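Task card 7
Instruction: Convert sequence to C-alpha cells.
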Amino acid sequence: MGPESTGKSTLCEQLAAHYNTIWCPEYARQYLLQNGTNYTFDDLAIIARGQLALEDEYVEQVRSQQLSSTQNPTSNIQPLFLDTDMYVMKVWCEFVFGQCHWFILDEIVDRKYDLYLLCNTDLPWTKDELREYPDLETRETLFKMYKDLLINQSTPWVEIRGNNDDRLKMAIKAINKLLYEHRY
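Output:
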C-alpha cells in the first residue's frame, strides 16, 4: 500500500514473478478507465466492492493452484500479492470526501492479511491519466495517513523505499522472513 506513483503495481508484479504466483491488480484503475475520473463518494463504494470481489477471485485461484499441486500443499505456500486493499479505500474516501463507507471499515476488521508493504514516496512521480496528486507534499500527507493506519493495527508491516531494485530486495526479505516463520 501507499500513495499513488510509489511503485505498488510494479512491486506486486515483480514479487509475483519472483515467487512464481499471481497478483491481484487494482480494481479502481479498471473502473476509472471505463467510467472516467470524475468520481463520487458512491463510486468509491462501487470500487471497493469491485476490489473485494476481485481479491476473492484471486484468492480462489491461488487456493485452486495449491490444492492441485502434486506436492504437499502446506509445504508449498504460494503467496498472493494485492495491489490494494480496504485501507487504501479508507484513506482515499477520507482524503477526498472526509468520510468513509461503513462496509469498508467492517471489511478492514474482517479481512486478515499476513504482511503489509508500505511504499514510500521516494520514487519520482510518474504521470498517468488516472493519478491526481503529483505534488510531493500531498503524497507525503497520504503516506503519513497510511503509516498511521499500519502503526495502529496488529498485522506486521515493512516500509519499502529506494529504487525499484532496493524495494524488491526489501520486500523479498520481509516476505521470506514471514514464509520461513509460517513453516514452523
